[in-house]
Specification:
Elements: H1 5-16, E1 23-24, H2 40-61, E2 68-69
Parallel strand pairs: 1-2
Length: 70
């Protein structure tokens, strides 16, 4: 859906980073219904995926941090 949005935003963001509040998000590949239990192993895998996707976004954006991530 977003395609190359981060790559397209990178030059603008790098030039103005200190004046912007940067928020990003990522999916973790879990589908839970209300009342479902989340096994510990699945939670750990989801956390690892989330962290990896953040690192990928940071690299694509050319920045060292985001201000909020969900």
């Amino acid at each position: 859906y977003y395609g190359d949005a981060e790559a397209n935003l990178a030059p603008f963001l790098r030039a103005r980073r200190e004046r912007l509040f940067l928020i990003s998000k990522a999916r973790v590949g879990l589908t839970l219904a209300p009342g479902d239990e989340l096994p510990v192993a699945a939670a750990r895998q989801a956390a690892a995926t989330w962290s990896t996707r953040l690192d990928e976004s940071l690299a694509t954006l050319g920045v060292e941090r985001v201000d909020a991530y969900y």
